């Protein structure tokens, strides 16, 4: 079950132009994000930083849900484990980003290897519940034992740095350095996943999502493909966990909770499944909506019930835009062409 892509020469000129535009848009967004700190207040920069961290988190889950068709409700487990490893491994002296970030990713990946090896033997709602169970196990390890400071969590004594030749290139004590590291990680994550989706591996994952039985009949060992995707997604979630720990300077068990897993799942649904840009759009919309509904300066006493208002808004979004924000953007983009054709 392998499909031969069309030769480039056979592609319509319009398709080539759209492909070029699709490549330039993420680059333009990255340039815009790099310029934003010059115009934003410290609050605005922190908000954009939070959006970028959650965008990486959402992109990692998009690989599982949107590409492979594996709906996980335990993805926050990898996010939180990486955040805790960042704090635990840092010690009292400033640790190097060069080994601390890979260590956080590796810890998330190793836990995903165990989790995936067992949970991928189940399907559907059973898979959802097993991934949730593994995430909750990790949650209670940090919540109920001294290893992670209990329910109060832990503080990052000294934030990581990156130095070369005696010159400090990145010092995460500086918020601007955290911002640009997060931007670099977001660009790298997006580019990596875009390359994965275009690869044979990515096409195999898409085939598994559409019809796993046919893929197995065609000779693909679908279990190993899914396990590889599961571990890769966890390691990318680990990047987001590392950045969250560096940004906040503290971690707590709520980073591993099912609420966090549900939140990132809502992000990719809100943005539109099956699209990397949709995952980023969903992260932007979710964080901004949460910030808006929780603002007592804007909504007064209603802000105390932000979970209710956010939940109702999500229901409306899903009911009115089943393909998410990216689907709305596509319809808006097609409508002038349709009107011109008539």
Short synopsis of the structure:
This is Amino acid/amide ABC transporter membrane protein 2, HAAT family. The protein is built from 13 helices and four strands.
**Poorly predicted parts:** 1-11
User: Which class of secondary structure composition applies to the elements?
Assistant: mainly alpha
- Counting H and I runs of at least 4 residues, what is the number of helices? 13
How large is the radius of gyration?
21 Å
Overall shape: it is globular
| Strand element count | 4
Largest sheet: 2 strands, antiparallel
State the share of residues found in helices, binned by percent. over 70%
Distance N terminus to C terminus? 39 Å
Tell me the series of helices and strands, N- to C-terminal: HHHHHEEEHHHEHHHHH
Strand content: under 5%
Strand order in the largest sheet: 1-4
Mean pLDDT: 87
Describe this structure in words.
It is found in: Cell membrane. Keywords: Cell membrane, Membrane, Transmembrane, Transmembrane helix. Its main location: membrane. By secondary structure, this protein is mainly alpha-helical. The protein has 13 helices and 4 strands. It has a domain at 41-257. Helix content is 72%, strand content 4%. Helix 9 packs across helix 10 (276-293). The protein starts with 12 loop residues before the first helix and ends with a helix. Mean pLDDT is 87; it is low at 1-11.
């Amino acid at each position: 079950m392998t499909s031969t892509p069309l030769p480039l020469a056979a592609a319509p000129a319009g398709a080539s132009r759209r492909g070029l535009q699709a490549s330039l848009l993420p680059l333009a967004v990255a340039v815009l994000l790099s310029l934003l700190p010059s115009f934003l207040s410290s609050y605005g920069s922190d908000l954009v930083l939070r959006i970028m961290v959650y965008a990486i988190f959402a992109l990692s889950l998009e690989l599982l849900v949107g590409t492979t068709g594996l709906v996980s409700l335990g993805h926050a487990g990898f996010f939180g484990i990486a955040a805790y490893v960042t704090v635990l491994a840092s010690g009292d002296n400033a640790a190097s980003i060069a080994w601390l970030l890979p260590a956080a990713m590796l810890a998330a990946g190793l836990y995903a290897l165990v989790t995936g090896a067992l949970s991928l033997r189940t399907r559907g709602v059973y898979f959802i519940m097993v991934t949730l169970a593994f995430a909750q196990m990790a949650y209670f390890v940090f919540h109920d034992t001294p290893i992670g400071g209990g329910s109060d969590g832990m503080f990052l004594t000294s934030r990581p740095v990156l130095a070369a030749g005696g010159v400090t290139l990145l010092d995460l004590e500086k918020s601007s350095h955290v911002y640009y590291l997060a931007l670099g990680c977001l660009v790298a994550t997006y580019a990596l996943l875009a390359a994965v989706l275009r690869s044979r591996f990515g096409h195999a994952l898409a085939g598994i999502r559409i019809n796993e039985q046919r893929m197995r009949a065609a000779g693909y060992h679908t279990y190993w493909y899914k396990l590889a995707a599961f571990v890769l997604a966890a390691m990318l979630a680990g990047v987001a966990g590392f950045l969250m720990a560096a940004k906040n300077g503290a971690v707590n068990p709520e980073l591993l909770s099912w609420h966090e897993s549900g939140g990132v799942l809502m992000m990719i649904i809100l943005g539109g499944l099956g699209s990397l840009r949709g995952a980023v759009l969903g992260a932007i919309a979710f964080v901004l909506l949460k910030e808006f509904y929780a603002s007592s300066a804007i909504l007064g006493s209603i802000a105390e019930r932000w979970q209710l208002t956010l939940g109702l808004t999500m229901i409306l979004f899903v009911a009115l835009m089943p393909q998410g924000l990216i689907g709305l953007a596509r319809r808006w983009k097609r409508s002038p062409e349709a009107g011109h054709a008539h």
